[in-house]
């Protein structure tokens, strides 16, 4: 089942299937290690839902909701 990272709930995990964004957002995500095949766990959501904190490749990463919406995950 495909789901965007911004639709995850805390504790949910999945594998990156593809990056849907274009240009700078896509490049920024790749530079931070968000690449197809990477295992991501959503750790926390801010009170208003932006930003989100994830665990990726052994480190914590904070993403804006707009960035997380570009990450298509396999659940």
TrEMBL record:
State the UniProt keywords alphabetically. Iron
User: Signal sequence: where?
Assistant: none
Q: Name one GO molecular function term.
A: transition metal ion binding
Cell membrane among the record's keywords? no
Superkingdom to which the source organism belongs: Bacteria
Entry-linked PANTHER family? FE(2+) TRANSPORT PROTEIN A (PTHR42954)
Q: Write down what this protein is called.
A: Ferrous iron transport protein A
